[in-house]
Amino acid sequence: MSEAHIVLERASRWYGQVIGLNDVTCSIGPGVTALLGMNGAGKTTMIRLLTGQIRETTGSVRVFGEEPFANPRVFRRLGYCPELDNFYEHQTGRQFVYGMARLSGFSKAEATRRTHEVLNHVGMTDRAGRKIAGYSKGMRQRIKLAQAMLSDPEVILLDEPLNGLDPVGRREFIDVLKALAAVGRTIIVSSHILFEVEQMTRSILLLNRGRLLATGDLSAIRLLIEKYPHRIRIETSEPRAVAQRLIGLPYVLNVQFDPRGQSVEFQTKQPNDFYDEVPKLILDDGLPIDSVTSPDNNLESIFKYLVAS
Amino acid sequence: METYIYSSMLRELTRFRRIFAWVLIALAGIGMAALCRNLMASGSSSDAYVLLSDAFAFRVLPLAAAILSMAVISQEVEQKTIVYLLTRPIPRWQLILFRSAAAMTVTFAISALTLAVLAASTSLLTSGVFFRDLAAAAVGSAAYVSLFVLVSLIINKSMIVCILFAFVWESTAPLIPGDLYRLTITGYLQGISQHPSVGTGDQDFMASISNVLGAHQATEWVSYLSMAILVAACLAASCYWFSTNEYMAREDS
Amino acid sequence: MAVASIRNLTVQYKSFVALSHFSCEIPEGCTGLLGPNGAGKTTLIKTLLGFVKPAAGGGEVLGMDILQAGRAIRQQVGLMPEQDCHIPGMSAVEFVAYAGELAGMPAHIAVQRSHEVLEYCGLGEARYRNVETYSTGMKQRIKLAQALVHGPKLLLLDEPTNGLDPAGREDMLDLIRSISHGKGVNVIVSSHLLPDIERVCDQVVVVVRGELRKVGSILDLKKIAGHPVDLELREESAAFEAALAASDIEIVSAQRQHYRIKADMPLPDIQRIVYSTARKTDAQVRGFQLAERSLEDAFMDAIEDPSPPPIAEPVTAGGER
Amino acid sequence: MSNSLNPISDLTYRGYDGPLASPEFRWWVIARMTIRKASKVNSLRWAAVLSAWYYVMMIAVLFFLQAIGNAQPAAQQFYQQYLQRMVWKDQFVYGFSYAQHLILIVSLVLGAGAIANDNRANALLVYLSKPCTRWDYVLGKWVGVFTPIFTVIAVPTICFYLYGVFSFKDSGFISQDPWLLPKMMSVLLISASLHTSLILAVSSLFKQGTIAGAVYSGAYFFTFFFTGLLSILWTNPHGAHSGLMRTLLYCSIDGIQIGMAKAMLVPSGTLAFGINIPGRNRVPLPIPSVAPILIVVFGITVVCLGVIWSRVRAVEVVG
Predict the structure, then answer these.
(1) Which residues, including other chains, have CB under 8 Å from residue B180's CB and lie 6 or more apart?
(2) What is the pTM of this model?
(3) C166 and chain A in contact, CB less than 8 A
(4) pLDDT per position as a tens digit, C88-107
(5) Alpha-carbon gap: A134 to the closest alpha carbon of chain D (Å)
(6) How confident is the model at residue B181 (pLDDT cuts 50, 70, 90)?
(7) Is the torsion defined by CA of A74, A79, A84, A87 positive or negative?
(8) ipTM value > 0.85
């Protein structure tokens, strides 16, 4: 893991008595990192801190090793796609992106070239000539994404990047993000749509009521959730027989039958041992198992377990 | 890149929808001049010009300055597009300086147009008074814009404050005897434009108003000096304030 | 009986043709309306509401003709629009009661009904607060409440889960699911989040560039020819892949530790081979299930192939999950 | 549903199949709600009460003179002479004109936010998703603002008229101008509709009620000062009296109203409260002729309705 561009040490930020961020210590390195949390959990505050719009009350926030607040050197290598849907409505998409390029310090020719390239990247080349007032939600989002990737930044912050895009657009953009991450860029995506986040990345940064609840790789986190043992579901034509065999295993906590009678579900704290046992069940005991799946092995359930506990 | 900030702001402020109203107001000067000449039975056209320039042109100047200074920062915060400016790799003081400069230019253009219209309709285009008025308008634009930008940074609902200052304080303070006029910008502007007092023929109603307006004024070089200090102080304060404070879209609205 | 049937509808806005010779039967129960941006989904919703005067063609909604009975349709239909909309200066109860009155309910019944619907939509405790002070999630719920107050027979939801956090989305989806099943309310959900549609709807209508591309129940759409298997190992292992390929099982796709394999032999044989290979190359199989095509893949295929859908084949109403 | 039988009642969603009124006449619902919302505003009540101050003062003056007249015979003679000189229709014109400022406040409170706030909150989408059409919305808002304004200006006038009829029948209250009440009522109707159309047109142009209100009152006072200045100049005996000034004399939001009232009632030019100070040579303001001012008023109302209709756009489809 090359050095992390973003480092927070005991950073906290209060708006008067209202809690924004409370004593967060973490570091964000290259690749896609998902910033998750309920409304009001501190995601927006974190993003505002990282994009240098506000200062931290205590602790320290370092982007590229510097204090990000109103710091042009940091902004030169940072791209930001805000969640707000406010634009200069009278401008056309191309004018807006061109203006942002020129304000980012590019010359007239360089700005035009980059604008063209970036608009192409988000698939807005043909429609960039129209006024933003007449844009649909998806088109406005693409323009925002375009201006975030203008200066080829090393760190890109995206607040609800896929908001309003249609399924084709969503898939296209997820591929674009993965390509950028593969090149070593640091991408932070704040989103509520968990099944899309799961397609983008495995490493998450979960905030809850201003505090850092979980950070790191998804599967590692799943193992550590004590309170909610792993649920594993086995679809089989003879649930009772399978259940009898399962009860014999020491690490199976409870067994549940599906009323429609075609599957068995049980909970265990050591999924590893069970998965080693499965070949024995199928090959040696010859139990007619159709499928073995884990219903709560996805980000939505993990998110619910973490936030609920 | 710095010049782009200036030129983009200039283009923004001179958009047809925004500038149209000001052109109308300036052209209204023709009607005002005609009406005024018709009403002032006696008195030369220069009296009409002096009266109108005090009562009309030098009222349009602060109003334009107030509205255009809002567009520098306060309107961006209101429309939540400030985030795009704040996250650009530009030092914040440059943003303030160049955008205010653009606002000053447009304000001066509007007031110069108004003065020109008045001068044209009272055929005084080549007179000394007109050129002195132009200089006063230039200095006035700079002073008013820099002051109102500072006010817009500190107070968030600042439009009303600026307009109250421009119309209530600026009009009454010079009339009050004593040195209150030193606390207003109009006093110094009159010092620069050196308006002659209007002929005291018969106590015509309009003439009496204009005499009272032009009563107190500072000397010319004092006016230039104090205006320069005011502009420098306000801009410096704005730059410092904008660089150290946080500006983000408010959550509630 | 179809909730709404549309017969070769053509809708034009000045030069832009939104729908051209569009005809479809929207079945009862909970239907998902899918389509890329600018495909005419919004136009279809507006036509169903009788907002739009089509250039040609026509149709009925709940038995009422679109061209003549626009108002009567809107009395029986509830719309939850995508944009934020409320009537300013009113508390939630007042706003929803007013919406009821607008729909034709007598004043006092509207107020009583308003309390009930707000309770149902989970806004019980914030019902006396002014709507402007509501958060994004609560604004979505109040929009649903004002669409439900006059007891519509058809409910049109445009991006219902937009802007909600995970917990809020789950509540909203459960709410829609409970309304659309067993309460005599037909629901049409238009959304870009296909997994949401998958969780809530029973059948789907796909519209692409103003034409109907596919109508069908989600279960049918998710079936795949042959019976490929989705496999998940604990971690990626090349040895396992090589061994599997050796025993003539074709690996269709591989992504990190997820594999999709296909073989023309019965499922138990595939299973036996997979587990014995795993044991030999001591890889740990963590997931083994019959592959299902996600709605997203079905949608992507529907967009590519231009073949028109089978002509109005009878859709079993409310296919059980 | 037999929830009354089973002990645990099913509180989940249940449909509504109670009575539903016919989808027409939705505009009355909108009007009723607009009136109900407006009637709760305190400043509106104060403005409504204060707008009748001239009539109240007039009644007080008459009552006072009558009381003194009865007490001392000398004053009785002055009182009779005062009644002889009294021209009743002038009082109505003054009552109406002096109420204009307060009617401004009433129309601001009622109409400024009526459409502006709806534009900001995108409320039209709620209305149109219910069985209302754009026509219902505009008519509903118009009636919702017109009715209170008309009530506020009509009630004091009618009360004063009744007071006059009962107690001053013999001193020419009716005989002077038998058609006074119908003329006065038509003046009030036209005035209320003009106020409503103007405020709603301004309201539909903006996104916030406060800004619309500020612009409307700004225009009101700007034109008021303009015509005020002109009328001062006009009454100045040795000032100029050009034709241009004669037409501009009534061109302000309150000026048109007063001009229309004068045109309809043709007052005889006595001073307020029937006072008559001989020897003041002031040039009386010209009374505009009926036809042109009515055409102007009608034209303005139509233009305002056109603005409202164009600004209240139906739900246009974005591509």
Answers:
(1) B173, B174
(2) 0.83
(3) yes
(4) 889 999 999 999 999 989 98
(5) 7
(6) confident
(7) positive
(8) no
Please give the Cα distance from A175 to A105 (Å, whole number): 29
Indicate the burial class of A55 (C-beta count within 10 angstroms; 0-12, 13-18, 19 or more): middle
Partnered with residue A208 across adjacent β-strands are A211
Residues in chain B, total: 253
Mean pLDDT of chain B: 81
**Which chain A residues have a beta carbon less than 8 Å from that of C303?**
168
Dig out the tokens for B43 from the structure: 């008195």
Q: Is C224 helix (H, G, I), strand (E, B) or coil?
A: coil
Q: Which residue of C has its CA nearest to A275?
A: C286
CB of D170 less than 8 A from some CB of C: no
Instruction: Classify residue A170 as exposed, middle or buried by CB count within 10 Å of its CB (0-12, 13-18, 19+).
Output: buried
D279: left (phi over 0), alpha (psi -120 to 50) or beta: left
State whether residue C229 is helix, strand or coil.
strand
CB A183 within 8 A of CB A32: no
Q: A104: which chain B residues are within 8 Å (Cβ-Cβ)?
A: 88-89
A-B CB pairs within 8 A amount to: 64
Mean pLDDT for chain A? 88
CB contact under 8 A, A292 and C193: no
CB contact under 8 A, D15 and C104: no
Task: Closest CB to A292: pick one of C37, C234, C287.
Answer: C287
Subunits with 3+ C-beta pairs closer than 8 A to D: A, B, C
Contacting partners of chain C (3+ CB pairs under 8 A): A, D
The owner of tokens 């997994």 is: C195
Can you give the residue ranges of every domain in chain D? 37-311
Instruction: Check if C203 contacts D (Cβ < 8 Å).
Output: no
Tell me what pLDDT residue C258 has.
85
Rounded mean pLDDT, B93-104: 93
User: CB-based contact (8 Å) between C75 and chain D?
Assistant: yes
Residue C319's pLDDT band, with cuts at 50, 70 and 90, is very low
Q: Residues of D numbered 200-259 whose beta carbons fall under 8 angstroms of chain B's beta carbons: which are they?
A: 233, 236, 239-240, 242
| CA pair distance B1, B18, nearest whole angstrom | 25
Residue in A18, A53, A54, A98 to test binding to B, most B beta-carbons within 10 Å? A53
For residue D319, the distance in angstroms to the closest alpha carbon of chain A comes to: 7
SS3 assignment, position B80: coil
B209-234 pLDDT, tens per residue? 555 554 556 678 888 888 899 999 99
pLDDT for C265 beyond 60: yes
CA nearest A38: which of A207, A200, A205, A157? Answer: A207
Q: Quick check: A288 and C268 CB within 8 A?
A: yes
Both tokens of B73, joined, read 């920062």
Q: Is C149 helix (H, G, I), strand (E, B) or coil?
A: coil
Long-range contacts of B116-121 (CB under 8 A, 24+ apart): B117/B26, B117/B27, B117/B29, B117/B30, B117/B33, B118/B29, B118/B32, B118/B33, B118/B49, B118/B52, B118/B53, B118/B56, B118/B57, B119/B49, B121/B29, B121/B30, B121/B33, B121/B34
CA distance to partner chain A, nearest, from residue C43 (Å)? 13
Is B52:B95 a contact under the CB 8 Å cutoff?
no
Whether residue C131 contacts residue D47, with contact meaning beta carbons closer than 8 Å, is answered with no
pLDDT of residue C310: 47
Q: How far is CA D314 from CA C46, D111, D239, D317, in A?
A: 11, 20, 53, 9
Residue A284: predicted pLDDT = 82
For A168-209, write each residue's pLDDT tens digit: 888 888 988 888 888 889 999 999 999 889 888 889 999 998
Please count the residue pairs, one from chain B and one from chain D, whose beta carbons lie less than 8 angstroms apart: 7
Nearest to C57 by CA among C10, C117, C18, C4: C10
The alpha-carbon gap from D317 to the nearest alpha carbon of chain C, in Å, equals 7
